Amino acid sequence: MSQATLKIGFVGAGAIHFGRPEVPWDHASRLEKIGGLEVIGIVDPDTCRSEEVLNERLASPDHGHIYANCRLLTDYRELLGMKPDVVFIGIPPAYRGSPKEGKNLELEFARAGIHVFVEKPLSLVPPEEFTPYAGAVADACRTNNIVLSVGYMFRYHAAVLKMKELIAQHGGKVMAFNARYYFAYTEGVNKYWFNTEFSGGPIVEQATHFCDLARYIVGDIDMTSLHTIMLNDTDKGDAGKLMYVADKAEDDIPANKRIPRVTLSHWRFQDSGLGTLMHSVTLPGSRYQATIDVQLDGLQLSLIDPYESTSVLRVRNLKGGNPNQDQDFVFENDDTYLRELETFIKAVRQRNQSLIKSSYEDAMKTYELTWAIRRQGEVKI
Ligand SMILES: NC(=O)c1ccc[n+]([C@@H]2O[C@H](COP(=O)([O-])OP(=O)(O)OC[C@H]3O[C@@H](n4cnc5c(N)ncnc54)[C@H](O)[C@@H]3O)[C@@H](O)[C@H]2O)c1
User: Fold this and answer.
1) Atom of ligand 1 nearest to the CA of 205
2) Which of 26, 43, 44 maximizes ligand 1 atoms within 8 Å of its Cβ, making it the mutation to test the pocket?
3) The sheet that has 71-73: what strands, in order across it?
């Protein structure tokens, strides 16, 4: 039986939806692969950008037809009026995730009965202000039987799924979780990442994926145990000075709004051992480096470079194998974005929120964690 074509709208014509040469993300090309849909609107006030991406897509001999009836819009309310089945919201958090009129996109789409895929971070406003809004969004989804997914794609990564499987097989509690996420900052940067006021800073905006994995792999965190220190641009001794910021992206940002160069945080899990996170802005080029080590009694799992097309899960296991030898599980061309979006589209077709690994309510807890880390480390000026 053929499936009905889903009508889709994009809010944001930026990199997350339509890519950029140096980044691995691009929701449109994954959705084109999945098929069974047509794009009816792209909303972006930057009409040069939206025109450019639409023309590129229309030129594709394989997928151009998906965009044949696509309209370019400048306000999300125009898209709302067109009643798509599904909306993808991928704009910076300063323009969404807020109870303020014009920024409450998630709520408006959910109340209109439109399924929502929204990017991380959920918001930019402090959690106290955001929580009632998040509750209203979750209520609207339940009332209207709407599927909502938040873009924590690593929850769908084959290596992360394997980690969870091996931990369950081994049994026992995680004793230590250690995430390292190093931002490569000298090429192809997005200027808004450098301004804490606009992006929320590197923990809220970027390391949020690794805070989310801490919660997904191990469990919730005892917030009272959290401790953070940061190295800033203005710290004595000048160790925090960055010399190679691409495109002068920081020149017009006041020193106290510049992102921390190093963030170190640690905590106790509510029902497991201890966790640490280190984020730094140091690496040359555009290739980020990320590693997560998870240790249980007699088991170590290291997830190496989940952002790369080939990533490795290195396992040292007391049970079954040489306890002194590493066993590598190699994941070649694992497309975690594709798996995330396939799951979302399937959930929409079945109206089955339970297939989604990252709901708004769950992502809210990750948002709170990233804010707690940030607040703990920021020097009050
Ligand atoms: N999950 C991931 O791996 C991942 C990767 C990249 C970005 N993101 C997230 O996606 C979001 C967007 O990031 P990006 O890299 O695409 O940014 P971007 O700067 O490349 O593009 C953002 C676009 O949004 C447009 N925009 C701004 N306000 C708008 C509004 N009110 N309505 C419609 N369009 C508007 C801008 O004109 C711009 O074209 C961010 O929250 C980011 O954290 C997630």
Assistant:
1) 43
2) 44
3) 71-73, 37-43, 6-11, 86-89, 115-118, 148-150
Q: Greatest CA span in the chain, whole angstroms? A: 68
Instruction: Using the mean position of ligand 1's atoms as its centre, give its distance from the Cα of residue 68 in Å.
Output: 24
Q: Ligand 1 centroid vs 258 CA: distance in angstroms? A: 20
Nearest CA, atom 3, ligand 1: 25
Domains (range + CATH), the chain? 6-152+340-359 (3.40.50.720), 154-335+365-377 (3.30.360.10)
What is the C-alpha radius of gyration for the chain, rounded to an integer number of angstroms?
21
Which of 47, 91, 123 gets mutated to test ligand 1 (max ligand atoms within 8 A of its CB)?
A: 91
- How many Å apart are CA 377 and CA 381, to the nearest integer? 12
Q: Which residues line ligand 1 (CB under 6 A)?
A: 11-16, 25, 43-46, 49, 76, 90-93, 95, 119-120, 151, 153, 190, 205
Amino acid at 167: I
What distance, in Å, lies between the first and last C-alpha atoms of the chain? 63
Residue 68's CB is within 10 A of a number of other CB atoms, namely: 9
Beta strand pairing call for 327-332 and 310-317: antiparallel
Average pLDDT in the chain:
95
| Torsion angle, alpha carbons of 209, 367, 138, 224, to 10 | 120
- Whose Cα sits closest to atom 39 in ligand 1? 14
What was the pLDDT predicted at 49? Answer: 98
pLDDT in tens, 25-35: 999 999 999 99
Q: Amino acid identity of 133? A: Y
Tens-digit pLDDT profile for residues 359-368: 999 999 999 9
What distance in Å separates the CA atoms of residue 353 and residue 359, rounded to the nearest whole number? 8
Are β-strands 289-296 and 174-184 bridged in parallel, bridged antiparallel, or unpaired? antiparallel
Q: Which of 37-41, 219-223, 224-228, 332-336 is least confident?
A: 332-336
Which run of H or of E encompasses 301?
A: strand 299-304
